[in-house]
Amino acid sequence: MSHKLDIKQGRVDLSHGAGGRAMGRLIGDIFVAAFDNELLRKGNDQAAFDIAASRMAMTTDSYVVSPLFFPGGDIGRLAVNGTINDIAMSGARPLYLTASFIIEEGFALRDLKRIADSMGEASRLAGVPIVCGDTKVVERGKADGVFVTTAGVGLIPPGLDLSCEKARPGDVVVLSGGIGEHGVAVMSKRENLEFETEILSDTAALHGLVVEMVAAAGPHLRAMRDPTRGGLAATLNELAHASRLGFSLDEAAIPVRAEVAAACEFLGLDPLNVANEGKLVAIVAPEGAEALVAAMRAHPLAAEAAVIGRAVEDAQCFVEMRTAFGGGRIVDWLAGEQLPRIC
Amino acid sequence: MKYVDEYRDGALARGIADTIAREARPDRAYRLMEFCGGHTHAIARYGLEDLLPENVKLIHGPGCPVCVLPMARVDLGLACARDPRVTICVYGDMMRVPGSHGSSFLKAKAEGADVRMVYSTLDALRIAEQERGREVVFFAIGFETTTPPTALAVRAAARQGLTNFSVLCNHVLTPAAMTAILESGEDVRIEGFIGPAHVSTVIGTEPYEVFAKRYRKPVVIAGFEPLDVAQAILMLVRQINQGRSEVENEYIRAVSRGGNARAQDEVAAVFELRESFEWRGLGFLPNSALKLRSAFAEFDAEARFALTEKPAKDNPACECGAILRGAKKPAQCRLFGTACTPDTPLGSCMVSPEGACSAHWTYGRFRERRRVA
Question: How many whole angstroms separate alpha carbon B62 and alpha carbon B324?
């Protein structure tokens, strides 16, 4: 075997991606150690497992957030929770994850270990093991530290069929909690922009909350989305276009923490456009709304769940909002470039 | 949020709106221009127009720095950016402003130019300190609000003996633009101005007195919060009803008659009037912009890189000019919302969130549908 990894001082070099002993050491000491589970321990290039005949959900997502570590989380935790959430938004119970790493030559091993440990912890906490993965090392300057890609599969409970095009006029829009926390937490650590804030990223795995929601209002649920990049505004516009209808929102009902509002104020941002990593929007038939909100509020990740609006007939698919000030406005997609990488 | 929520209170807004509705005479129209893009944005963002009676009309003025910047000046910045020695620093709003032939700083960056988005002049100064081998040019835009920070940066560079920092100056003056609108002879029919917020913190209320005295137009200086704007509208309606034309100050928490003397001194030390400067929509206006004094010539990018302005033509169908003069509404432009949207802006009014077209498209375009329905 190659020399033991010097996690404190060492750096990733090109040999760690070359398929030789050094790569084996890196994978064994950092990733397998952090993600440890029965399927991964077998050391195959794939994980083989049995499932009952059922509808499945599958997803993949890449993470390039900068900085890699931010208040309340890091790229690894984001990669685990984000993919679990994408699976969970179909109502599915997430089963397994994969994780791939593109690492820049020179990346500190202690940072890589910190990221892997954080992923292991998030995966254990969620009860969703990382069962296979891949590692590549690229030359210095060809990546920005580390990029992480995760994929996941999950099982959809029988009878559940959630989809973005299923919203109907009259449906109720429910938001699970305060918006903009992840984006503000990341931006507070950006170069040139650093500011003091108490805000932590809201990164969290939402599949446990989804189980409660399905139990309370399953047959009435139409669609669920987690409003990540582009914020609540982008998510509602996507839902509106997919379902060929509009939404009518009440600004006063949308929870925004005072610190988030303050940070957005001086950055010139609208919290509606700022990313979340631990919130969801549910579209529910009116007869299921009350039970849904009650079940959500009983869960620690959605204590501030609120009805924020309704679906309305609208051939132009506008998301309109009554402002707290008393006027009307459109809630649009953000035009042009996103602020620097946030997920 | 303290000191912000108070100025966005819905109950207070209804109170002011009711008073405006009561006092605005139904037999006449009140055509009021909000000069600043900051006001335009607040009006659109909070849906203020929904609270006003039909006969109180808001006309969006030219107070949006990127909107009034003519294409020739954007081209000048792009020519500078394409010089391989140059790192050009621009405010985020500038990135997508169209230059000639569909170019922009954003596109130049993708093509390999070293374009950096900065949040303040100090960021540009820091880049110049750290990268001594690069020619760092700050593309300076804006009205009197953003001029003092540019002046400070130039003085700091001079003090530190920085030899690789310069400014491409496009700073313009508010009163000159207001005069141009009133002298344009077009059928603009403005009966009063909602005067600038941040600009007035620097220059004070005194420079507007000429508009009240000579042109008999009431001016109310207002803050950028929606209640500020609503209160200013009420004050203008009252002046008009009473036949008064005065400069009144709604924004007393930040604006005095004399303004910020320290900032004015900094600006005067570094800048002097340009004889003539082109404004998009208003044409060449005398004494309407600033340039660096000869004592600071080494920091003047135009001299340093021998840049010369070349005439450039806007899209002939673009109505930015008429919109900036208040002669047309965004929806009266046939490019609005078809070829020209915030994602693919053809005119500069569609670029900045403060631009009249962008604000109307982003927040207010549902009102057109109501009219159709």
Answer: 5
